[in-house]
Amino acid sequence: MNPYSDGHVLRIRLFRIRHGITLRELSAQSGITVQRINCIERMEFSLTLRSRERILCALEAILHSRIQNTAIALRDFQCERERLFDAVMEKAEGGQDAAK
Questions:
Q1: d(Cα 51, Cα 93) in Å, to the nearest integer?
Q2: Which letter does DSSP use for residue 8 in this model?
């Protein structure tokens, strides 16, 4: 009997969902397929030590990236704060986004 049929999953699934990390994001970072990660989380496949380390490293990298991106966004917000409600062209010349 599959433990998932009883509602049991590995804690990593709850952690991933709680922090808004998608299976695709984790897959891209870890190099493990979405299907394999999904099956690991639902305890349908045995977890190898190598897969475990790849998933843990991927989660850590994703979280570090988010911290870095948040810091950049916050600095950008602080610089733009007083101008955020100014009217601007959505597209700059050449079709480029004006926000870039």
A1: 47
A2: -
